[in-house]
Amino acid sequence: MPVVLADGSEGIAYTELGAVFHPYLRDYIGDCIDRAGPAGPICPFVARALQAGVMHYTELRVDGRTGPRAVARSLAGYLAWFDAVSRRESAEHPGLVVAFPGPPGPLLPVVAAAHEVVRPAVYARGCTSALFHRDPEEPDDDPRHPGPGYFTAPAPFYVLRRIIPADLQLAMRAPHMFPVYYRLYAAEARRTRLRTAEAAERWNRACREHGLAP
């Protein structure tokens, strides 16, 4: 069962990895402490979720005998759990982090394949998901990154959160996400978020691509 990561809960007996993830999310993802690159948060929702006590955490162990279907079943179970819990939590944006302990090299292909299997169900429930990791084959000084080790993490991890109105730009970059965003927030987007001709044109283009009314 996932546990809550919340500000002021440092004394709770998390797993060893969970105890590392709490400050990582608070200081590295939600702020810019000990991080190269941009001065702002990587995710602006993390700090508020920790403060509100709606950031959940669990771990899923994957080894050489674990197949993508087994991991996908576990992620689908966490999705159902998160969907039910997040619908009754506060107005802050709840999240679920699923960390994968162990050497990332062997488990990443399995976890990535499972993520793709579960993604349609994630969108169907009005959520979005992402898998975060640093490729062990990628050098720390990769020129595509803002600074050395910018995307470091204690372990590979999977994140679930609900789609929100502020996801407009993300939805227009993610083809499978846009119809879900449209279903949930089209009226609000037209009213408050299409403030420039460029934004309106991108919106209209995305609508045409999906056969939706602009």
What's the helix and strand layout?
Blueprint: E1 3-5, H1 16-29, H2 46-52, E2 55-59, H3 68-86, E3 95-99, H4 104-124, E4 127-132, E5 157-162, H5 168-173, H6 178-192, H7 197-209
Q: How would you characterize the overall build of this protein?
A:
The chain has 214 residues and is an alpha+beta fold. 44% of the residues lie in helices and 12% in strands. The protein contains 7 helices and 5 strands, in the order E-H-H-E-H-E-H-E-E-H-H-H. The chain has helices spanning 16-29, 46-52, 68-86, 104-124, 168-173, 178-192, 197-209, and strands at 3-5, 55-59, 95-99, 127-132, 157-162. A 5-stranded mixed sheet has the order 1-2-3-5-4, with helices on both faces. The longest helix is centred in the middle third of the chain and has 21 residues, at 104-124. The protein is globular.
How far do the termini sit from each other?
A: 42 Å
Number of helices in the DSSP assignment: 7
- Strand proportion: 5-15%
Cα Rg: 18 Å
Helix content: 40-55%
Instruction: Profile the largest sheet.
Output: 5 strands, mixed
| Total strands | 5
What is the SS-derived class?
alpha+beta
